[in-house]
Amino acid sequence: MGEGQWTAVAAAVEHPAMASAAKGFGEAWMNTREPITMNREKIDPENVAREGELKEMWDRTGFDGLIMSGHPVDEESYSHIVIYRKMSKGAFTERQTQMAHIVLSEVKWLHAQGWPEDRGATIPKLTPRQRSVLTMLTGGHSRKEMASALEISENTISGYVKDVYRHFDVHSQTDLVRKFSGMT
């Protein structure tokens, strides 16, 4: 996924209407607390993500089909993995969704990788922009790359980077990556 595409996905995911669009997954997850995998059609049967401003935002991503998979990591934490499909490829079938569920359910280590020591408890306290910067920092992006992808100045990015470092009590991008990979 290119940086512009990643930025478009992050913006769509942060849109307030996504709570309604993802309601099907959230309800199913809360009812089972077991590994669960659903395609877009099951997650959003009312097509909330295909209306108005949210539709325009998802159209900018170039993705239409998706599979979301949730897995408990421990009593208090869970892992979500989302697989996106280009618009030109169409929706994921029920069979493809079931195959993804089987694979993602059996690869237990995948869901435990990259958790910070606090199991992510502090992440929701960040603003949406700070979360975007955090994701890009842990992905190894430079400030210049982040500024370009988020369409803001490098100076503004520097402010967000400082906020993220302060929040996680680190002094460098390397320290942040170590903290999230459990190497500290």
Automatic annotation (TrEMBL):
Pfam family, one: GerE
GO molecular function: DNA binding
Residue ranges crossing the lipid bilayer per the database entry: none
SMART domains, per database record: HTH_LUXR (SM00421)
Alphabetized UniProt keyword annotations: DNA-binding, Transcription, Transcription regulation
GO biological process, one term: regulation of DNA-templated transcription
Domain of life from the UniProt record: Bacteria
Domain (HTH luxR-type) ranges: 119-184
InterPro entries named in the record: Sig_transdc_resp-reg_C-effctor, Tscrpt_reg_LuxR_C, WH-like_DNA-bd_sf
CDD domains (UniProt xref): LuxR_C_like
Entry-linked PANTHER family: DNA-BINDING TRANSCRIPTIONAL ACTIVATOR DEVR_DOSR
Protein's recorded name: HTH luxR-type domain-containing protein
